[in-house]
Specification:
seven-stranded mixed beta sheet; four-stranded antiparallel beta sheet; mainly beta; 123 residues; 1 helix
């Protein structure tokens, strides 16, 4: 069991950067694989990035490779998504997710979700 709270979203211009944060409750954060998903208006939720418990393994969707970076600080119970060179097509609600299983292969059904934070990129 874990509660997740995202922050850091906002309105930016194309080419700008944002860093999203996801603060997790509980004392077992280091036991969870963490991921970021997004859902744009009219589209299905999709995985953006994921990171293993020990940060040794990461996954990125092809659409964000080279622009986004996922990281975590287990001591702070926090996972981050650094988003650079943002594009209008990155506009979506971004969700933090947690699961003890590998989020990069289980699909869009992790056990725990945050409430989401809106990212809007203008052209």
């Amino acid at each position: 069991q874990v509660q997740l709270v995202e922050s850091g979203g906002g309105l930016v211009q194309a080419g700008d950067s944002l860093r999203l944060s996801c603060a997790a409750s509980g004392r077992t954060f280091s036991s969870y694989y963490m991921g970021w998903f997004r859902q744009a208006l009219g589209k299905e939720r999709e995985i953006v990035a994921a990171i293993s418990q020990d940060s040794r393994n990461t996954y990125y969707a092809d659409s964000v490779k080279g622009r986004f970076a996922i990281s975590r600080d287990n001591a702070k119970n926090t996972v981050y998504l650094q988003m650079n060179s943002l594009k209008p097509e990155d506009t979506a609600v971004y969700y933090c997710a947690a699961d003890r299983r590998r989020i990069d292969i289980i699909g869009t059904s992790p056990d725990y979700w945050g409430q989401g934070t809106q990212v809007t990129v203008s052209s």
